[in-house]
Amino acid sequence: MEATLTDSQWQDRRVLVTGANGFVGSHLVRRLLELGARTTVLLRRQSSTLRISDIIERLDVSYGDLVEATEIDACVGRSRPEVVFHLAAAGVFPGPEPSAIMRVNVMGTTNLLEALKCHGTRRLVNVGSVSEYGSGQRMPEDHPLRPTNVYGASKAAADLLAQTYGRSSPLSVVTVRPFTPFGPQEDPRRLIPSTILSALRGEDLPMTGGEQERDFTFVTDVVDGILAGALYAGEDGVFNLCSGTGRSIKDVATQIVKLMGDPIRLHIGALPYREGEMWYQSGDNTRAARELGWAPQVSFEDGLRRTIAWCREQAEIAAPLNANKG
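The chain above was modelled as a monomer; its predicted structure follows.
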């Protein structure tokens, strides 16, 4: 992936990022700034900018809401992006009503696609989700889409819409589906940061039996894959960004606590499993390796160590990140 990190194609290239204040989005915009891209971000006025507060003055901020077609058209018309990275979505965490999830993820994506079509944008990188697949092991890109929740269904619908626009207009659409990204600035409600923060506070952690398996991918590797998708020579494509290895929740939590010196106990089995729990979610990254030249560069243990170090240094930032829902 070194070619992506130094590729002169990014210097002064006009890009637009939705969801720039989210976990993966905040890492992406930092990388784009490092590469010299002229980076515009679309933010809702009420959204938290905690993750990007130190770089926001270097970004061209356009305020608008995906569900407001005129605002999206104005943003695209003003910034004239050559490449758009679409990460904004609702429903990653429980809370929003199904209608709100569909309105943002489906209708909001439609508004964006219409604006890109109208203003002649050539490349869209649509950042999808493993939730589109549902449950499975070593799932390739042609695995049937069988989402088990509204969020996954809405992301699958958004991807189908994007592909439709790609076939019927000059817009070239590449979709990447990250599998369980983790790393610094992840929402503390997620497994890895919640375990780390509990250990830093010296608080024992109740959890489920932890037999669920997930395919964890370090966030900088996810960003590399997103950028590789933007530079993909083909007209369109769908690519998994994953390690190909499923790890149980129990083993991950145990490894974190061990790396931190066993400061707390894990009460495994103290909590019930969620209704409709997905037991397996791991992917096959063969196509990304073959066509994008992408493969994870950060080992799982190294990623954990980096995340632990960040949480130790930035505990005052890590804890309130769950307020960042934009």
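The first strand starts at residue 14 and ends at 18.
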